[in-house]
Design a protein that fits this description.
The chain is built from three helices and two strands; from the N terminus they run H-H-H-E-E. It is elongated. The protein has a domain of 38 residues: Orthogonal Bundle (Histone, subunit A). The chain is mainly alpha-helical.
Length: 102
Amino acid sequence: MFYVSCSMISKEEVKHIAKLARLGLSDKEIQKFQKELSSILDYMKKLNEVNVSRVAPTSHPFELENVVRLDKGEKLDPKIKKALLGQAPKTKDGYLKVKSVL
């Protein structure tokens, strides 16, 4: 099926888009993308004709909720804390000591 675009974009526009995307295109590829980009623009025109006046705007189709907990420390029994820190290779002032990660 051959598709004729109503608003064919020019080869210069395709070359400009390719340059912005840092793509090197051959003449054959330029012709191919000229047709493909034009068909995309024509489809966008069709989408603009759809009546969406009764559709509520959304940023996401699903209702999402942040489930992150508060970053809050818990009190620990001093005996358990001492036993756990005793198993660590290095500690300092009641905390685990680890190498810096830069």
